[in-house]
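Methods — Computational structure assignment.
A single polypeptide chain was analysed. Its primary sequence is given first, followed by the predicted tertiary structure written as structure tokens.
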Amino acid sequence: MATRDRYDDGGFSGGNLERPGLKQLLADIDDGLIDVVVVYKIDRLSRSLMDFSKLVEIFDRNGVTFVSVTQSFNTTTSMGRLMLSILLSFAQFEREVIGERIRDKVAASRKRGIWMGGYVPHGYDVQDRKLVVNDAEDASVRRIFGLLSNSAPPRFWHANFAARDSATSRAR
């Protein structure tokens, strides 16, 4: 009997098992509602060899067959499992290389002074993807660094800034 459910994890990375659609699929497998899992490509289910082997173990334990529409593998034979492991090793390698490239790109952009997003530090604004000093907050930043260099206790900081900076504080 075909299930009417579709287990879609659009917007979630295949790099881990923490995805709502996959969790529901695994729950339905454990409940005996699924006997065949069909995917378009193997790496859409998981791009991690370790995670995929956990999934295959769950499939085997529950008598579930795994089918990829675009790649033919028979997970019930040793040769099919070997080919699957090789393919998933490359998928995991590709994911790791992409992560390294992204980290390298972000690091290179930061070296060139390009703001790559996140919380804007107090005392700065972002203009044309660069951090520029916010003149209204400049004095409070200098006071903070002055207190830090004098090793003043934190309770002193609050008393020192509460009255002075209420006009320049901003929600982030």
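Note: The first strand starts at residue 36 and ends at 39.
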